[in-house]
Amino acid sequence: MKKFLALFMAAAMVLAMVACGNGGNNANSGTGGNNDQSNTGGDSTGGDSTGGDSTGGDSTGGAVTLKIGGIGPLTGDAAIYGNATYWGAQVAVDEINAMQSDIKIEYKFEDDEHDGEKAINAYRSLQDWEVDVIYGCTTSAPCLAVAGETFADRYFQLTPSASSTDVTAGRDNVFQICFTDPNQGVTAAKYIAENKMATKIAVIYNNADAYSTGIYEAFAAEAPNQGLEVVSVSTFADDKNPDFSVQVRDAQSSGAELVFLPIYYTPASNILKQAKDIGYAPKFFGADGMDGILTMAGFDLSLAEGLMLMTPFNAYATDERTVTFIDSYKKLSGGVEPNQFAADGYDCIYAIYEAAKKAGINDGMSHEDICAALISAFTDSSFSVDGLTGSGMTWTATGEVSKEPVAVVIENGIYVNM
Questions:
Q1: What are phi and psi of 285, to 5 degrees?
Q2: Portion of the chain with pLDDT greater than 90, in percent
Q3: For residue 62, what pLDDT is reported?
Q4: Residue among 211, 199, 313 nearest 261 (CA)
Q5: Does residue 53 contact residue 94 with C-beta atoms inside 8 Å?
Q6: How far apart are CA 291 and CA 415, in angstroms?
Q7: Which of 62, 137, 308, 361 is packed most tightly, with the most Cβ within 10 A?
Q8: Could you read off the pLDDT of 194-216 as tens digits, one per residue?
Q9: What are phi and psi of 146, to 5 degrees?
Q10: How far apart are CA 231 and CA 254, in angstroms?
């Protein structure tokens, strides 16, 4: 929280920067600001931005300013996920700061390039900014690195999409708004069996990625319980790998009726293409990392026809809140369609906001005090949040969220609920 002296000094610094013509590297993420995906960080409070910090909208003498710092990949191969969580959170920040509420949010986002060491550097930068709450990281490996730091330093941390259980294990301060990897693996096995999609299953997964491996291991353990036979298991170690011919042919020769792909959309796009090239047409079923494939530059949408995936958010839904979110998001992102990572980010900010209200956060609290108060709020049996990715979301003391998964199938280039 900002103390009076800090406010005074910050104001003086801003005036000095304006006088000198501030040319800092962080991009502003406020409405109407720079939405270039090559930015290295955002700093916004939801109002019109001039390069300094402001809470946006009117504030009263009793107003509380909560500084939320985000971390994720704004550049590099995983940038589609980081930018989605960045912009999705910004939509929520803008909405909250426009409310007649005593809580105002200052929001800054740092680029980690999907790298653990750079994520730590981003975290240190947010500490220099006097952050109150950590939002992120977007992906599991960097989040695991940062979680160890926030646990030691006692910052509350909420990740939109780092789904590995290792992120929260033994850390009472770290919570997830996404499904955990084991949850997705078990749910996928049950869904495939209960809907009689297939009995002979092939799995292709990234054995160098914690997310992919975690889902696979849970799926493989649950499949026999559901009467499913895993006839082919093949791996790869780099999402940039362009050649999946060996994996696809193994699935085909094993007689797999369905191929489970607990991987991200980039390698999945190559698998779909190479399966078509050899005339192999099984059912394909993915986890939430598949979300985003329809907005992938240069991707032939016909390859995704019939693809099934689990996602907590359907960008093609017609309810008022979803439609409003999509409209605001596209204005911020320069027309980019939101995916589930964007919706997870939006829900994260609202969850923090609702917990801060419940906990009675005030400007006199240290980040350690805020951490303790938010942990208490999130784990209170009476606390729940209605969001884009779930209604009545609750959390356990282990940081895991409870909400219902949704399966969709791609038909004519859009998601259709199954």
A1: -135, 125
A2: 77
A3: 62
A4: 211
A5: no
A6: 10
A7: 137
A8: 999 999 999 999 999 988 999 99
A9: -75, -35
A10: 6
CB 164 within 8 A of CB 142: no
DSSP helix/strand/coil, 176: strand
What 3-state DSSP class applies to 218? helix
Q: At what angle do helices 210-222 and 140-153 cross, to 10 degrees?
A: 100
Half-sphere exposure of 152 (CA within 13 A, CB side): 7
Per-residue tokens: 178: 């996404």
Widest distance between CA atoms in the chain: 70
Structure tokens at 66: 């909560």
Amino acid letter, residue 33? G
Q: How far is CA 35 from the centre of its chain?
A: 18
Q: Tell me the C-alpha distance between 32 and 287, whole Å.
A: 34
CA angle 391, 397, 401 (to 5 degrees): 25
Helix (H) or strand (E) holding 220: helix 210-222
pLDDT digits over 49-94, tens only?
323 333 333 333 468 999 999 999 999 989 989 999 999 999 999 9
Give residue 221's identity as a one-letter amino acid code. A
Residue located via tokens 């929520």: 92
Token readout for 245 is 């011919």
| Amino acid occupying residue 104 | K
Q: What is the DSSP letter of 199?
A: S
* pLDDT of amino acid 307: 98
**Alpha-helical runs (H) found in 131-209:** 140-153, 181-194
Q: How many CB atoms lie within 10 A of CB 74?
A: 28
Could you give the CA distance from residue 304 to residue 32 in angstroms, rounded to a whole number?
Answer: 34
Take residue 141 and report the two structure tokens written for it. 């490996």
Measure the CA–CA gap between 263 and 3, rounded to whole angstroms: 45
Strands 41-44 and 103-111: antiparallel
H-run or E-run covering 84: helix 79-97
Angle, CA of 235, 138 and 107, to the nearest 5°: 170
Our CA angle for 354, 360, 362, nearest 5°, is 110
Q: Is the pLDDT of residue 14 over 50?
A: no
Closest CA to 65 of 385, 356, 343: 356
Query: CA–CA separation, 115 vs 410, rounded Å?
Result: 32
Residue 136 pairs in a beta bridge with 71
Give residue 136's Cα distance to chain centre: 8
Taking phi first (over 0 means left), then psi (-120 to 50 degrees means alpha), and beta for anything else, what does residue 217 get?
alpha
Reduced to 3 states, what is the DSSP secondary structure of residue 142? helix
